[in-house]
Amino acid sequence: MLSRLIMLMKAGVIPLVDAADFDGTNDYMLRGAGLTGAADSKTGIFSCWYRVDGGGGANRRLLDNAIGSAIINHGSDNKISFEISTSGAGMIANTSVLLASSAYHHILCSWNVATAGTGRIYVDDVSDFTSTLYTDVLIDLTTTDWSIGSTTGGTGKLNGCLAEYYFAPGQYLDFNTESNRRKFISATKRPVNLGADGSTPTGTAPIIFQRVALGAAASTFATNLGSGGSFTITGTLDIASTSP
After folding, report:
1. Contacts of 180 (CB under 8 A, 6+ apart)
2. C-alpha–C-alpha distance, residues 17 and 22, integer Å
3. Is the pLDDT of residue 45 over 50?
4. Quick one: DSSP state of residue 153?
5. Does position 2 have pLDDT exceeding 80, yes or no?
6. How far apart (Å, rounded) are the C-alpha atoms in residues 51 and 73?
7. Distance CA 162, CA 19 (A)
């Protein structure tokens, strides 16, 4: 770890955080229950740093729950889709193609389905939102299980690395406003400090906030620093070879 930090410092890069590496074969995380304090909502925010290592041509889940009301999927078309919906109504939107790369991408999304035209997706601080559905409905989020890195059934495993993973239903920021994006990504496209419990951007902790502090074990990514309760790892997460 020390030699890696020295190497990064010589290159003029001092990372704020490490990332958890999901191998695409065995690794994923399950809540094993509902999220503590979860409530149905029409609004939400999602943010993470994501290095795509492989799996193109297959579905790869960044987030899922037992009833499919909050699905964030890197699809077989290599687009990231957000399906925040109940009974087929709510927000269904996607990005443009995102292929495997050594670089990290920052994925930022917000929605308020009560108000048309308020859905936002930014990839690497650039607007990248294509909507196929945006309707006013209360999203059911009080389900029995949640997963990160696969479906709740263990399929669609993610082959990539995640850092600063943040999900906050019930909150909203308009990411067309640059100062709101700066709460999650710097002007130089680097992570910013979201606070010990992720509450810095909005003043309220998100229900999911997963982090690997610089130098910590990869297994700490399962500890939810937000309000919703921690996850259990299936497989073995590793520290990613690079950091955002």
Report:
1. 173, 174
2. 16
3. yes
4. T
5. no
6. 14
7. 5
Amino acid at 72: I
Helices (H), the chain: 2-10, 178-181
CB atoms within 10 A of CB 162: 27
- Please state whether the predicted TM-score (pTM) of the whole model is above 0.70: yes
> Rounded distance, CA 56 to CA 54, Å?
6
Closest Cα partner for 161 from 89, 79, 60, 11?
Answer: 60
Report CA dihedral (209, 213, 217, 222) to the nearest 10 degrees.
0
Tell me phi and psi for residue 81, to 5 degrees.
-110, 145
- Whether the Cβ atoms of residue 146 and residue 152 lie closer than 8 Å to each other: yes
Instruction: Please spell the DSSP secondary structure of 9-54, one letter per residue.
Output: HHTT---SEE-EEEESSS-EEE-SSPPTT---BSEEEEEEEEEE-S
Please report, as a single letter, which amino acid is at residue 6. I
| SS3 state of residue 149 | coil
Tokens of 160: 């990539």
Residue type, 164: E
pLDDT at 16: 80
Return the H-helix or E-strand segment holding 74.
strand 70-74
Residues comprising the chain, all counted? 244
Contact between 52 and 193 (Cβ < 8 Å): no
